Hints:
Chain B is mainly alpha-helical.
Amino acid sequence: MNIGLYLQLLVIGLSMGMIYAILAMGIVLLVRAVGVLNFAQGELFMLGAYVCYALTVQLHMPIYVMLIVALLIFVLFGTLFMFAVYWPLRNSKWPATIIISTLGASVVLKEVVKLIWGSVPVVQPPIIKGVLVLWGNVRIEYQYLFIIGIGSLLITAVFLLFDKLFLGRAMQAAAQDSYAAQLLGIPTIVTTALTYIISASLVGVGGWLVSPLFLVSTSLGSFLLKGFAGMVIGGLGDVKGAVIGSLLVGVIESFATLFTATYKDAVVFSVLIIVLIVRPTGFFGQKISEKV
Amino acid sequence: MKRRIIKILVVVAILALAAVLVPTISSHYVITVVNGALVFYVGCLGICVMLGYGGMVSFATITFMGLGAYMSANLSLKAGMPFLVCVLGSMIFAGLCALIIGAILLRLSGTFFTFSTVALVLIAHDLFTNLRSLTGGPDGMGGIPPFNIGSFVADTAADNFYFLFVAGLLAALFVHRLKYTNLGRRLAAVRDNEIAAATMGVDVYRTKVVAFIIAGVLSGLSGSLMVHNYHFVGSSSFVFDQSTTMVIMAMLGGVSHPGGVFLGTMIITMLPEWLKPLQEYIRLFYGLGVMLLMVFMPTGLWGLGEQLSARFKERFHLTRKTLIGSDDASSEEMI
Amino acid sequence: MKRRILSVLVMVIVLVMLLVACGDKKDPVTTEKPDTPSTDSSSGGEVKPSVEPIRVGVVTTLSGSNSGHGEYAKEGAELAKKQINEAGGILGRPLEIIYEDNGETEQSYVNAAVKALSSDDVCAVYSNGYSSQIELVLPQAQKYGIPYIGGNSSHALLEKDYTYYWMLRLSDRYVSPAMVNACVELGMKNPAILHVTDSYGVGMADYVEQAIGEIEGMTVAARIGVGDNEQQFSPYLTQIMNSDADGIIAIQHQDQAALVMMQVDAMAIDLPLMGCSQYASALAIDTAGETANGWYSLADWTVQTNTETGKAFVDAYRAAYNRDPDMQSVTAYDSMYLLKDAIERAGSDDPDAINKVLGETKDLPGAMTTYTFQGDNSLGTTIFLVQTENLQGTLKGLVTR
Lengths: 292, 335, 401
């Protein structure tokens, strides 16, 4: 086969991988901070797409204003989400309650969106239109390159935040041992809220990035499962692992279409299960014994 | 002892009444609705074992229902087996699959396990849709014979009801009994604290796998009942969304008690029929309901009922010994 | 111990209440019944309300996310009812339609259909449900012995010996050769097939492939089946571009059809494009916008229809509802006239008699097509070839079975 085809598939795969990475990072941040697998992350992602659609298409905002307003809305969502889904349950005896509650939240978000925008999908115009024709039939949509660019920026930003900045370290400390962190004067409620805000903003921007490629509809929530897959392959609780795992999922998915279209998802999830069997904690995860 | 006999008699009387009344006084439509609910009830009992007794969030119920359903369809259509053989066959098949899959997936801890069951549902749906020779592919398999035992063939929805009622009752009794067996206690120990259970000498992994198999067998039974009730099986019945609905069914009623699960299944099946004009808001209510339940009443409506009745009796001194702190009464059932 | 008994009692009471509530649900329908003829008699004075009406069930989606479809269907059926009753009813008896809302899940579909089949004196049921939903109900229809008319087109249903099932549209098996012939005219010699892997998509793709095989010198470049939840078509389109395909035959449902049209446009693909009827549906074109222009498709229905009855229907529909009729409206409308014709030929509203004469339907002009029984229960005879231009389907030809 020809190189052009592989190149195009690689670009498509990488850009989808970036989207999954953004979703996965959002989940990982929450898992590390509060130990909760958030099943509503996909719906926050979808909400991001709808908010951006409403601001650009329905309210005709220029892109810079739109981004700022959207970010403010995401901050609000993040805070609301935390106080609705996590805070009342933080002392629950049974960890499954929070997971089930996020499941409930995902249903609620989906239904609210349907009530506001209807169930017919809406269309977001492209952020950058056009295709880059390299040679012959080899063409790459600018939108994919744009996603790869913005995605890399976001990933770098998250790494910097948690590795270099004091705020990130404080959040990490609170995540690892909230009692000790509180003794050190780190307010855990603030760091937890911040984590939720960052997580919601990340996936919100992710939703904005994919909205022109696909229809803006409630089915965008299903991207979450690929984000999950990437995160689990990388290792639960590790940001670097989640990014690499997600990129891998994107590329595998893209190249899987060469062999099978029908079993594409099965291929991705089989890889996931095989990884889990070989390394039950993912590639970068470490086994930590729980406290009794 | 006397009280126990009275209690059993009351329950039996109520059940007998239900068995006689439902098919005779209700319309064909109501029986159809109830039948559909009973099919899912059996599957939800699997969730009761996994989540209620064992504390494991698994979405695989729907997949094992699918395995049972297709097994039953193949047995009856291609091999011409009678209903009872089909049911047994699908329960064994689903159980075997659960053994293999559970042995692999349960090596993973909590969240990983939950997610891997989601992956399982997606893979299985792909297979159900595309393995045309075994599942009829997207066209599904139709013309499956109705319930039958010997020369008796279920012709009407009311006949179906009796079969489903008996199956549901047996499954519920089994699950109820399970709680007080050795396995049930081990599961509860694992649910409450895995490491503590392990130090007490419970084989955590083995206990979990056995629970997974039991859930698989129940789901297989449910799937088999499903095909004989609807005479058709198609892959679109076995999707992830249906799986979340089933978890919600179980949680809403009270996941740690077969009666609670029954309540939840009935409510979630009836509500949309009942509130058709509010159809658009129904799923929103489910979602909100589940979120609120998790905060205020993680034991579901059943737990709420038990707590209320405990308070009521405490107030009126109906118990022989006054309960010390009504909360303790329910925390026995607390998941 | 008493606590347990009490809780069991509570459970039973709740259950009984639910059952009672469910039973009550029947009442609104029965109370609606007297209402409906009375509104009719005010609009069409000739029909005496004292005559026992002819009852037809309509099972459609009136609530939830797909209620748009159901509204179109209801409007079509209501229009037919009004016209029929104004013209004196059927055998001098007014037509009465009992609507059942099928909700959003397969289970609620079955429940609604059983409710329709088991209501009093229903002589036939029409439903625009999906093939998978209808298939769940057909054993019931068979058991009740009531004709069940479907608005779908999956040929698989016809092959399963359901004698009480009738299909208004031309089944996919007969549409596919027409589609391939149209593709030949567009200059395709080696097209790629991109289809959805549900019952409809796989069945249709099979027939298309078969039809291509029968044409000399024509081959299939690639056949790609994609799940019905897929949103990312770029990898498949990339592969089609890199194969030597000289055209695309696409078989998807509305939302996915819109996505394919958008992504084909985004990749600036300039091959001849042929879609299934969904590619010409108003919903898909609305969503896809400009990118829908240029697509050909074989559609069961277009408002530019060139038949007399079709034109009359479009005018009447626009006058009544102030919008263009959708395919869902026209199938519901035609089903009522099909039943009227059958009942008049049978001379009674006995379901078995109706079912028998439905098999003798001949040259009945409907709004969508002319209905004739040709050996199987697919009664439609024609389909339109349309091309989307300026966001509207332009009629390019009429294909006969």
